[in-house]
Structures are given as C-alpha cells and as structure tokens.
Design brief:
VC0802-like; Rossmann fold; 2 domains; 13 helices
C-alpha cells in the first residue's frame, strides 16, 4: 500500500500547542478525502501519513490536498524497510519508467538513533542508484530528486514533492463573519482568513426588491467554491434594498455610502453574535474606492464594537486579482450582476467623513428598527465539501 507523506511548517513552531494543531490538520485532511478510499490518516514524527489503498486515486488526492491549509508540502511515497539496501530498492521502484540524466538524493533522519546520519544515507543510497541507473549525481540542479525519510519504525521514499497552501489548519483560530459581495475582493479576504485558521461564515447584502437575484446567485457560487477550503460553510443573505431606500430618503447624498457601510456592520455585528463569530471581515483595501479612505474606514468602523479585520488593506488591485485567479474565484466575481453597493450611489460620495459627522447624519434613522428588520428577513444557505 502506498502512502502520502504530508509535511507542515508553521504548525511545527507551536511547541506545546502543536498536538492540537496537528489533530485539526488531520481532521481536515480526513474531511477533504472522506469520499475516497484512503483508509487511515495518522501522525508520525513531525509529519502526517495518509494510507492510500488505491494508487489510481492519487490525482484526486493530489488536487484535494492542495486545498488544505496547514500543509507545507506533500508527496506520494513508497513505504520501505530502514536498511540501505531496502531504501535503494524502493527508490528504484519509485523511479521506474522515469527518464532523467541527473538525480540527487535528499535524506532526513527523524530517528536520531539510526546508525547513519542523513548525509551518509543519501550518499550510500545515491551510489547504488548511480550504479544501477547510470545517471549522474547533480546536487544543485538535478532532473529528479529522491527524498528519503527514516522514522523510528519505518521509512518512506518519494520522488516528487508538491507545494501546499501553508498557513494554519482551518478551525484553530475561531470563527469570523465575512461580508461577501459578488466582487473580486471579499472572497479573497475570506480565503486569507481561512489561511490563518479561521472558520468563515458569509454574509451577503442583496439589493432586493430593487435589484434582481444575480448578486445572491454569485455569492452562493462563491461560497460553494470556497467551501472546499473549509469543508462546511453557511451563507446568510440580508435584503438590504429597502434599508438603503430609507437612508436615501433621510440623508444628504454625499453621506449615503458611508452610512450604508455603517448599517451593514451593525447588522453583521448582531449576526456575528448569533453565529458565534469573534470578528467581522471585509474586503476593503486602503484607497481603492471613495469609501475606503482612512477617514471613511474609521467612520464606518465607529458604528460597531466588534473587531473588524481587513486582510487586504495593503494589497493593490493587481495583487488581489492575481490571488482571486489562483484560488478560482475570479471568473465568478467578474460575471455581471446587480450589486447593492451600486444601488442609490451618489455621483460624488464623501471621501473624508468623520465619525461625528456620520453619527449626526444618521440621527433621523431608527437604527435599531432597521437592524431588526434586516435580521428578521435573513435567509441562510448551507454548503458542504465533498
């Protein structure tokens, strides 16, 4: 039976809390592979070992592990006895059918009682491979790298390491509530929070009844795609169009956008309490649009007591777009829709609004009633992967 060997990096720095992080990583790996034939996921001396009864499933396993935060790298591997001859024979089996002119052996001795050091293991196995294959040794730029890992009771040989997402396993850092529009930025913000170990709940504001359901459909598609990174998601939808209309009727034009955002955060804060989220997350990037100046961001955040996290705050549009393309949300986000952020937007919104000005501007509004109205009509959708 073949194995997949999973290595982690940041988790290894957690010292006394490391077992908790590793357990969560293993649960996430088991979850993402639960509809495959993988029979066992276990911890083994600074790595995670996945038993693979059916090697034909490797393409699926490889794709799925690429969606698991906390993995630094992983490799399809062959189990071996720990003797040099067995390691070399297993390496030859792993290299069967490959064409190369040069190779290198990288060995790591996790069991320090093993009689040979890591360089000695690499040197002795490398000599056997060179004699058998006729390839030259190139430690700097080899065509093929053979990785050998010697543990206390077993050893593994692999010939291709694949890069993982890194970060922390989803579930070790609590829950956040992300304001999810149909645009490019907020899905990336949600994904980045998953990479810091957070479970993400999603909140979408719809412009209904003045706009159609296309923005909600996009938000649903985005939430469904992002679920592969955290296995289970909930998307909450608030009908916001009528609240926007009431703001328009009571507030001068330049102030409307900031007041929309303040109202969204108030609603999000109440929902966060209901779902157990410890912080709010937005896709705001400093200076990207009129509402995202330092002054306006401060005025918006003044509306709530909750922690507001902005993981994209120092990223530019090109960086955000590149990350959206990488995680698969970009093609969804650029589909045309009717976003509530475009509803009743004045031509010249305020760009330097203070918190005091915002509070004065919204005095005519019955804020508790508007928040209660939004929460009373909330609609929730659930998604699971796989």
């Amino acid at each position: 039976m073949q194995r997949v060997i999973v290595h982690y990096h940041e988790i290894a720095l957690k010292q006394r809390n490391r077992p908790m992080f590793v357990r969560q990583l293993m649960r996430n790996i088991e979850g993402v592979l639960r509809d495959t034939a993988c029979s066992l996921v276990r911890s083994a001396e600074g790595r995670v070992v996945i038993h693979v009864p059916d090697p034909e499933e490797w393409p699926v396993i490889r794709e799925r592990l690429g969606w698991v935060f906390g993995i630094a790298n992983f490799a399809f591997a062959w189990k071996s006895e720990r003797q040099i001859e067995s390691l070399a024979a297993t390496a030859l089996k792993a290299l069967a059918g490959r064409q190369a002119g040069s190779f290198a052996v990288r060995a790591k001795r996790a069991d320090k009682s093993y009689p040979l050091t890591s360089p000695e293991i690499a040197r002795q196995v490398g000599k056997i491979l060179k004699d058998e294959l006729g390839w030259k040794v190139d430690l700097e730029h080899p065509d093929v790298e053979v990785h050998i890992e010697v543990l206390a009771r077993e050893a593994f040989v692999s010939v291709e390491r694949l890069r993982g997402l890194g970060g922390l396993p989803v579930g070790v850092s609590g829950t956040v509530l992300t304001l999810l529009s149909g645009g490019i930025d907020s899905p990336v913000a949600a994904w980045r929070m998953m990479g810091r170990g957070c479970r993400v709940e999603f909140l979408h504001f719809s412009g209904a009844p003045y706009q159609d359901r296309r923005s909600l459909e996009k938000a649903q598609e985005l939430a469904r795609l992002l679920t592969r990174y955290q296995l289970h998601s909930r998307l909450h939808c608030v009908v916001f169009g009528e609240i926007q209309r009431q703001i328009v009727a009571a507030v001068a034009r330049p102030y409307r956008v900031v007041l929309y955002r303040r109202m969204m955060l108030r609603i999000a804060q109440e929902l966060a309490t209901r779902v157990g989220a410890q912080a709010l997350v937005t896709g705001e990037s400093l200076g990207q649009v009129a509402s995202q100046t330092l002054e306006n961001l401060a005025a918006i955040e003044d509306a709530v007591d909750s922690m507001v996290l902005r993981p994209l705050i120092a990223m530019d549009k090109n960086e955000i777009r590149a990350q959206a393309e990488r995680i698969g949300t970009y093609e969804i986000s650029i589909q045309p829709d009717q976003d509530c952020c475009q509803l009743f937007v004045p031509p010249l919104p305020a760009t330097r609004m203070s918190a005091a000005e915002a509070r004065r501007a919204e005095e005519p509004l019955n804020i508790p009633a508007l928040v209660a109205e939004a929460l009373a009509g909330i609609e929730t959708f659930e998604y699971s992967f796989p």
